């Protein structure tokens, strides 16, 4: 018997969490849809879930493994993704499950000792790399091929602030070209399209900045696979390594990137931990990590949360001090139109 939910609630949710705990996994609060296979006693013997286009929390009780239950779960989840018009599907799982999922039509993107990252498109990641190269001016590719100073930064820009502009300007002082990867995740205050428009406004006059989407390959916090780590701190470190190794092994070489720039993080412990892992992991791939002191306004570092709070309050005077003028005009018009 198959039980599905969007997501589960009440007793069904409690039983799912309990089963995952016995299987060494934890329930991920980002789950939007789950599938459970029950035996004749109505006990959960297998489960899997979806979070957007990422399949996660997949487990089958050891006594029932080898009976095709995992394939049944995967089939249900893929059908759900198809119904949601999401043809490109990803899985995070444990490396020991590689043969199982590869036999079901998934292809490895990257494997670390803790995490296996797969997708259902055989050449999906290669197409992503080719897109990045097409978006890059020939002069930047040539600089990378001759081991010139080509840098990279990753940002959410929710919204784009003067701090972002400051980081980019400081980075350009020590590199010929800078690749700016904008997170594609759509769980921010501003949509990806809105953030892209703001970044375009914000990088006006910086022709050596090359803008890209991260797509689904530069892992965001929303899809980090912490759910199969009982120790959340261990999980966060494994998440960082997965993202950084994918960048160091495959993305950076495709563009000749040899430097990664990041701002200091005085507020968020998770982001600060990511920065520390970056400084530990990327040098082994020949990538220097340069941490730039965050731009300050008076005694305080400029933060995204403060900018969003000023926007919510329509505090135009304080907001204007945090964002470029073009971005200020855009977000203030948007806010006023929402109030009409």
Could you characterize the architecture of this molecule?
This protein is an alpha/beta fold and 340 residues long. The protein folds into two domains: 2-122, Gcn5-related N-acetyltransferase (GNAT) (Aminopeptidase); 126-295, Rossmann fold (3-Layer(aba) Sandwich). It is 41% helix and 20% strand. The protein contains twelve helices and 14 strands. It has a seven-stranded mixed sheet with strand order 1-2-3-4-5-7-6, with helices on both faces. Strands 10-9-8-11-12 form a five-stranded parallel sheet, with helices on both faces. It has a two-stranded antiparallel sheet with strand order 13-14. Strand 2 and strand 3 form a beta hairpin. Residues 225-231 have low confidence and may be disordered.
Précis, in short:
By secondary structure, this protein is α/β, with parallel strands linked by helices.
């Amino acid at each position: 018997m198959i039980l599905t939910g969007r997501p589960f609630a009440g007793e069904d949710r409690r039983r799912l969490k309990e089963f995952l705990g016995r299987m060494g996994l934890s329930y991920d609060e980002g789950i939007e849809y789950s599938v459970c296979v029950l035996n004749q006693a109505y006990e959960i013997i297998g489960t899997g879930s979806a979070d957007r286009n990422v399949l996660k929390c997949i487990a089958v009780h050891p006594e029932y493994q080898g009976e095709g239950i995992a394939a049944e779960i995967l089939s249900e989840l893929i059908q759900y993704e198809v119904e949601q018009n999401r043809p490109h599907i990803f899985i995070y799982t444990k490396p020991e499950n590689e043969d199982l999922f590869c036999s079901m039509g998934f292809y490895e993107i990257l494997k670390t000792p803790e995490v296996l990252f797969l997708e259902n498109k055989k050449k999906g990641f290669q197409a992503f790399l080719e897109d990045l190269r097409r978006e890059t001016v020939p002069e930047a590719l040539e600089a990378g091929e001759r081991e010139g100073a080509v840098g990279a930064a990753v940002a959410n820009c929710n919204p784009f602030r003067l701090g972002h502009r400051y980081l980019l300007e400081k980075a350009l002082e020590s590199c010929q070209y800078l690749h700016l990867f904008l997170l594609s995740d759509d769980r921010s205050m501003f949509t990806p399209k809105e953030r892209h428009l703001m970044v375009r406004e914000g990088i006006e006059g910086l022709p050596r900045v090359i803008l890209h989407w991260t797509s689904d390959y530069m892992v965001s916090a929303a899809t980090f696979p912490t759910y199969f780590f009982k120790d959340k701190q261990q999980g966060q470190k494994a998440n960082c390594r997965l993202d950084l190794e994918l960048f160091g092994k495959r993305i950076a070489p495709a563009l000749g990137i040899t430097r990664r720039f990041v701002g200091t993080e005085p507020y968020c412990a998770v982001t600060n931990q990511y920065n520390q892992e970056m400084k530990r992991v990327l040098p082994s791939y020949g990538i220097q990590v340069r941490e730039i002191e965050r731009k300050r306004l008076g005694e305080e570092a400029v933060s995204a949360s403060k900018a969003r709070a000023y926007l919510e309050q329509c505090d135009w005077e304080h907001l204007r001090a945090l964002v470029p003028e073009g971005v200020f005009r855009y977000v203030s018009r948007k806010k006023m139109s929402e109030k009409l």
